[in-house]
Amino acid sequence: MQPGGPPLKLGSVLSLPVAESSTRVRVARLGDLRALAEIRRLSWWDAYRGLVPEAALRRMDDARMVRRMAHALAQRWHVILMVEDEHERPLGYAWIGPHRERVGDHRGEVFELYLHPRAQGRGAGKQLLVTAIWSLVEQGLHPVIVWVLAANPACRFYEACGGVRVAEGPVDVGGRVLTRVAYGWSDAFPLPLS
Ligand SMILES: CC(C)(COP(=O)(O)OP(=O)(O)OC[C@H]1O[C@@H](n2cnc3c(N)ncnc32)[C@H](O)[C@@H]1OP(=O)(O)O)[C@@H](O)C(=O)NCCC(=O)NCCS
Fold it and tell me: Does residue 11 belong to any structural domain of this protein?
């Protein structure tokens, strides 16, 4: 489903009053993708080792990921938001766009949300998620949904950020069938950080 209206363009949403922190969220550009692909690989190894087949982790290829992300950025409805520290070092990213599968009336999706392992647990994930959700809301792409492996501790993160479990089902990850769950934000959007 492609929504109507103008393509995803982010402006005012990025000036939301986010936390009094030294991190900031901005739209990623092509030149950022190599660093984001590396963060994705490190985050996968850290979060998914023992959960998904190791072969799937070993097959990860930064160059291939950069091509996928670059292709997505060329799509008018896809945006990659990134969070960086006070020295403009990338800490993580959220890849957002129109919901891919029909689950209820959800229209927007956070496809990926990954922080560098050393950047986790300090509020940057929430800052990124809140900005991602509000970006989608601003474009009329809501309610918003995110899929996560049921065994991933990140489920607690989505719950802490106001997500409500709306669906569950099997997913094949590298040849192993795992359970995934979907969290949705409908009328209970997380508030901007203050
Ligand atoms: C999941 C992830 C994005 C969360 O980002 P983060 O920066 O570590 O989380 P934050 O510090 O912003 O935490 C925000 C809230 O979630 C809670 N939370 C985060 N991780 C949690 C966990 N594993 N268990 C319980 N609560 C958790 C925090 O306590 C905090 O609660 P509060 O707002 O009430 O204080 C990050 O940890 C990550 O990249 N994990 C590995 C990759 C991954 O699993 N990504 C999701 C794939 S769908």
Answer: no
Measured from the CB, is residue 150 less than 6 Å from ligand 1? no
Best CA proximity match to 169, nearest among 145, 189, 187: 145
Q: Ligand 1: does its nearest atom lie under 6 Å from the Cβ of 43? A: yes
> Is residue 95 a part of any domain in this protein?
yes
Classify residue 8: in a domain, yes or no: no
Can you give the residue range of the structural domain that contains 58?
22-185
Q: Give the 3-state secondary structure of 132-178.
A: HHHHHHHCCCCCEEEEEECCCCHHHHHHHCCCEEEEEEEEEECCEEE
Nearest to 82 by CA among 44, 35, 149: 35
Considering only CA atoms, which residue is closest to atom 45 of ligand 1?
A: 114
Radius of gyration of the chain (CA): 16
111-158 per-position pLDDT tens digit: 999 999 999 999 999 999 999 999 999 889 999 999 999 999 999 999
pTM, full prediction:
0.90
CA-to-CA dists, residue 34 to 62, 113, 127, angstroms:
7, 16, 22
- The pLDDT tens digits for 30-73 are 999 999 999 999 999 999 999 999 999 999 999 999 999 999 99
The rounded Å distance from CA 42 to ligand 1 centre is 16
Q: Which atom of ligand 1 is nearest to the CA of 122?
A: 11
Atom 24, ligand 1: which residue's CA is nearest? 156
